[in-house]
Amino acid sequence: MKTALVTGASSGIGYEMARILSHLGYDLILVARREDRLLELQKLLETHSEIIVCDLSKEEECKELYKAVKKKDISVLINNAGFGLCGSFTETDLDKELNMINVNIKAVHILTKLFLKDFVKKDDGYILNVASSAGLMAGGPLMATYYATKAYVVDFTRAINTELSDMGSNVYIGALCPGPVDTEFNDVADVKFEMKGINKKYCAKYALYNMFENRKMIIVPTAGMKLSVCASKFVPTRPLLEITRRIQERKK
Ligand SMILES: NC(=O)c1ccc[n+]([C@@H]2O[C@H](COP(=O)([O-])OP(=O)(O)OC[C@H]3O[C@@H](n4cnc5c(N)ncnc54)[C@H](OP(=O)(O)O)[C@@H]3O)[C@@H](O)[C@H]2O)c1
Questions:
Q1: Domains of the chain (ranges plus CATH)?
Q2: Which residue pairs from 148-151 have beta carbons closer than 8 angstroms and sit at least 24 positions apart in sequence?
């Protein structure tokens, strides 16, 4: 039986991905800190699933997670857990930011490294890193750390994708880069998007389809966001940063 591991499965995009993967016949390993939420999700799944309560901001717990599942022949890793924080860099909390760097970057880095080695050995497997359209911009004034973490995930994923294709490997790695999605993200980041977020089920379905069927390196759901990302490439950096700052300012 095929097995998929989804981090941040307790809500939002990760929760929906777990449900779709189960519907596709995958056994699931559900990872997050809120066990009650994972237990609720487990009841809805159509296949066997296992819950691993894990704080991905802790390096040791990321490594323990890998050790706990490495014998299970996992073929899909969804590095989805992550969160944002809004505010002027001179005022935002350093500990929260370091925590964010640990979850959004370090955990993704560690899990990609450990699982990819196994996937390459068997020449099979999928890794989807959930970044953001924020990672495709020039930077995010008033959300500086969040944008930078997502730019890391995008660059890192693109580079590994290229290394894999140079090796002629069958292993897939890609980055999901959505704009606003209607999840608990806003409450955690303490922001309010001006633009209505897209449906989380749609986002998850679009991402998995483009991973399995189209093997897209960068997945951007919705034509509007694709157009914004494309247009941003033609705007010089200073004005682009100014536009992003204004958008962030209105979110507070
Ligand atoms: N919503 C958007 O507008 C949007 C847009 C672009 C990209 N994204 C990205 O999409 C991903 C999923 O976010 P979402 O929108 O679905 O938000 P969400 O509903 O808040 O879900 C975030 C998930 O991450 C998990 N998580 C956070 N910190 C964790 C930690 N220390 N250890 C383990 N798990 C942790 C949470 O689980 P627990 O709290 O139970 O641990 C939760 O399951 C994130 O990487 C986010 O940056 C979101």
A1: 3-251 (3.40.50.720)
A2: 149/82, 149/100, 149/101, 149/104, 149/105, 150/104, 150/177
